[in-house]
Design brief:
This protein is α/β, with parallel strands linked by helices and 253 residues long. The protein has one domain: Rossmann fold (3-Layer(aba) Sandwich). Helices cover 51% and strands 14% of the residues. The strands form two sheets. A seven-stranded parallel sheet has the order 3-2-1-4-5-6-9, sandwiched between helices. Helix 1 links the parallel strand 1 and strand 2. Helix 1 crosses helix 7, helix 3 packs parallel to helix 4 and helix 4 runs parallel beside helix 5. The relative contact order is 0.13.
């Protein structure tokens, strides 16, 4: 069995790679930081289980996404994990447009391209799974993290739509979408925020996500707190939700 994981140089991507290797998967690690990938692959290969390989790739560039696919398409990937992504905190009117476009390319375009290319191969084989990493942000408005929240809503609804298409087509290929709340990773450093809520451990979220994906779960929400919070949001008006969301995001400054 082979898995390809984007954003594998740190955080959940890294932890997913270690867990999958412990299950016997050979893992292909993808990220921009080649030295980090090399170190992670070396550590995985020093343990019992699957072997690790890596591809240095900047997924904010569409040509790089296609290059990645062409490099590994002969490997017949069993599990694709689109984990690469980042956020950026601040007022929409003040965040540099170049940073937002880079976020859209990484969080949306790369997920879309890789899902499209690998899904077609999986459907031909009638076998395979895809896990797209969204966020609990995908269910909510996100003033001061506006573009990030919008990208995660895209990933969530995009994945759900494909799930239903596959079901209607009678395909054995499965797709899942992970929607965690705050997780202790490098996200806050990159996004220039300080989480007001205590994040879950990345290793625990990674393991839960993989286990639920392999069971065929569609929407994966780790942690009872986030499940309860998302349940009760349906009873709150959009304007109240916006005010609450703004106050939470403002405290992250």
């Amino acid at each position: 069995m082979k898995a390809l994981i984007t954003g594998a140089s740190s955080g959940m991507g890294r932890d997913m790679a270690f867990y999958l290797a412990s299950l016997g998967y050979d893992v292909i690690l993808v990220a921009r930081r080649e030295q980090r990938l090399k170190e992670i692959a070396k550590e995985i290969n020093s343990k019992d289980g699957g072997q690790a390989f890596y591809v240095e790739c900047d997924l904010s560039k569409r040509k790089e996404c296609v290059r990645l696919y062409k490099l590994v398409k002969g490997e017949k990937i069993d599990l694709l994990i689109n984990n690469a992504g980042f956020g950026y905190h601040g007022y929409f009117s003040e965040i540099p447009l170049s940073k937002e476009l880079e976020m859209i390319e990484t969080n949306i375009a790369a997920v879309h391209i890789l899902t499209k290319l690998f899904l077609k191969d999986m459907m031909k084989r009638n076998r395979g799974q895809i896990l797209n990493v969204a966020s609990s942000a995908g269910f909510l408005p996100g003033p001061m993290l506006n573009t990030y929240y919008a990208t995660k809503n895209y990933v969530l609804r995009f994945s759900e739509g494909i799930y239903e298409e596959l079901r209607r087509q009678g395909s054995a290929v499965k797709i899942s979408v992970l929607c965690p709340g705050p997780v202790k990773t490098e996200f806050d450093k990159v996004a220039h925020v300080n989480f007001s809520l205590s994040g879950m451990k990345s290793e625990a979220v990674a393991k839960y996500a993989i286990d639920q994906t392999l069971k065929g779960k569609l929407v994966i929400i780790p942690g009872i707190t986030m499940k309860v919070g998302l349940f009760f949001r349906r009873f709150v008006s959009e304007k109240i939700l916006l005010k609450a969301s703004y106050n939470i995001q403002k405290r992250k400054s």
